[in-house]
Design brief:
Elements: H1 2-13, H2 27-39, H3 41-66, H4 72-95, H5 106-154, H6 164-175, H7 182-214, H8 216-243, H9 247-262, H10 264-326, H11 331-376
Coiled coil: 192-219, 300-369
Family: Belongs to the UPF0496 family.
Main location: membrane
Length: 379
Amino acid sequence: MMGGQSSKAASTDVPLPMKMGNHSLYASDLSSYEAACVEDPSLQSFDATIQERTGRVITSLAHGVEVRSLSIDSLKEVTGSMLEMNQEVVKVILECKQDIWNKKDQELFSLVNDFFENSLHTLDFCNALEKCLKRAREKQIIVKSAMTYFEEESQNGVEGSVYLKTLQELKSFKETKDPFTEEFYSLFHSIYKQQASMLKKLQIKKQKLDKKLKSLKTLRRVSNAIFVAAFVSVLIFTVVAAALAAPPVVTALAGALSVPLGSVGKWCNSLFRKYETALKGQKEIISSMQVGAYITLTDLDNIRVSIDKLEIEFESLLQNAEFALRNEGAVRLAVDEIKKKIETFADIIESLSEQADKCSRQIRRARTVVLQKIIKYPG
């Protein structure tokens, strides 16, 4: 492999700063690269290409030294090989979809924006629900007022026209509109659709991040490719300097290049760790939003069930009020049925109010958690 063969060649042909002995600046990085080659068939192919081109360049340069000159063809071989190796690195990076070095993830940014926008819309829905419940309580008060009048009028012990106030209140109840308007239901369906869509997008994004985290081996391939390309670049230019038979230049060049190259391996590893940390940071943000969206959807489902129950009770109260208004002789029977329903109606109203409050609190909590993750996220 490249690491091993370079070591052998460097021990005889390369100036002292480039020697690959046990104390070399690059020994640990090349050992890591060699180990990666053993495990990664794709990197083996890359390494074979690098070996072939490096060998071709050095052979050409060696021929130039034998005839005491460097031909134009030899220099073309050097520059051409450099371009080819850079292209190999580009190919590896492209295989990783070139998103490794993106400083900003536009998809994540869009999801975060949508999450906060949707959460505000859901808070608006909770406020709209409270307004509907306020109207429901007003209807509850009218019904209870009718019950009070009925008790007062019943004390007279006379049937029929004596229930004028009771019937008047029941008529007032009947003429009031449904507490849940068409606009409210339209808002509910819109919010529910937004949250369901949000949850689906977050699930897809999380799957992508999970896939990337499982594919970090590919990123290792990229970092190794960059490192070995940089190493070979220095090796070739050092051989060129040696071929020019200018020892002071060789020493200066090798010394100058040893500093940046010595940090290439560390830079690649640092890049890898930063990418891994960034992915995990993104996953934390996505997971937080996913939990928030799931809880909101659950709350909306519970609210919808309770609204359906309240509508059923409201419709039952209306039917009994209409029955009493059509049949004045059956007022007592209708009122007895209303008494059975009104407490359930009141209980559902209070339950819905608690659910709306709970939904609002959990939305605010989810917003806070996501904000904390974003602040923590190093991206």
